[in-house]
Backbone:
């Protein structure tokens, strides 16, 4: 796929780019695999705002993706579709029994192609199998973190992890973030790279385009009054980095690590933070 640029008919279109959607084969999702999605505006089940700057946006339906596919089965790709809820493309596939599923599409999938799942399948693009059956050096995606729980890692557009080694029942993976971690070799993974490689190169270009995504404007703390934000106040001059960045409520941010999961620290061989352990 490629990036489509616009003629500069307006100031916003001068920088605006979009995807060309050449991989998509249909614009009508399968009704039985979609659900209504209510806009929560960043609020939790108690009505409190837990994610700021959310609200509005166009209506969308949620596509039900399957991350645990039946094993020892052959699937045929019926359609490649756009999913407004994720950066990657999704594939509508049908198994030998006629059942339909939505799965993450990779760069190799196209209408009419097939792939297999199981322990004794060929080492080919899109096939899904345990990590112990995949050769070292292969790029994989949709990786299980716990056997049988379904794909939890490497699911974003253009993402892929490299299988570095297999030893003592664990597979060593180099993640897209640069982190090197271990998972059990019995975890399932798909061979290939997630579709929509150019997603990260798209320029929004217009404020209204962001609003249609359900993202509301963000005001910088340095332009607020001192009573409204820790960064606020002053004589209107340019403020430097005299103090650590903080949230409106005084908590450290931008680099303040929030991960405190000691149970899985031993699985991280090298952190994405300059080789330091989390």
Residues:
């Amino acid at each position: 796929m490629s990036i489509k640029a616009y003629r500069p008919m307006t100031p916003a279109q001068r920088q605006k780019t979009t995807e060309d959607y050449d991989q998509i084969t249909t614009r009508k999702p399968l009704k039985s695999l979609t659900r209504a999605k209510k806009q929560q505006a960043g609020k939790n089940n108690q009505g409190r705002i837990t994610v700021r700057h959310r609200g509005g946006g166009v209506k969308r339906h949620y596509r039900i993706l399957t991350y645990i596919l039946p094993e020892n089965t052959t699937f045929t790709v019926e359609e490649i579709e756009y999913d407004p809820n994720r950066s990657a493309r999704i594939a509508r596939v049908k198994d030998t029994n006629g059942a339909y599923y939505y799965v993450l599409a990779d760069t190799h999938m196209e209408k009419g192609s097939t792939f297999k799942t199981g322990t004794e399948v060929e080492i080919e693009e899109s096939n899904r199998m345990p990590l112990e059956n995949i050769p070292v050096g292969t790029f994989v995606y949709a990786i299980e973190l716990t056997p049988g729980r379904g794909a939890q890692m490497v699911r974003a557009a253009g993402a892929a992890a490299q299988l570095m080694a297999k030893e003592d029942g664990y597979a060593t993976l180099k993640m897209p973030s640069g982190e090197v971690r271990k998972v059990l070799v019995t975890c399932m993974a798909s061979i290939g790279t997630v579709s929509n490689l150019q997603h990260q190169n798209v320029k929004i270009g217009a404020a209204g385009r962001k609003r249609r995504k359900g993202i509301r404007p963000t005001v910088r703390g340095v332009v607020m009054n001192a009573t409204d934000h820790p960064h606020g106040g002053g004589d209107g001059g340019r403020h430097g980095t005299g103090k650590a960045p903080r949230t409106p409520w005084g908590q450290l941010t931008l680099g303040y690590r929030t991960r405190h999961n000691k149970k899985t620290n031993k699985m991280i061989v090298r952190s994405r933070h300059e080789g330091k352990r989390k």
User: Anything to note?
Assistant: Residues 207-212 form the longest helix (6 residues).
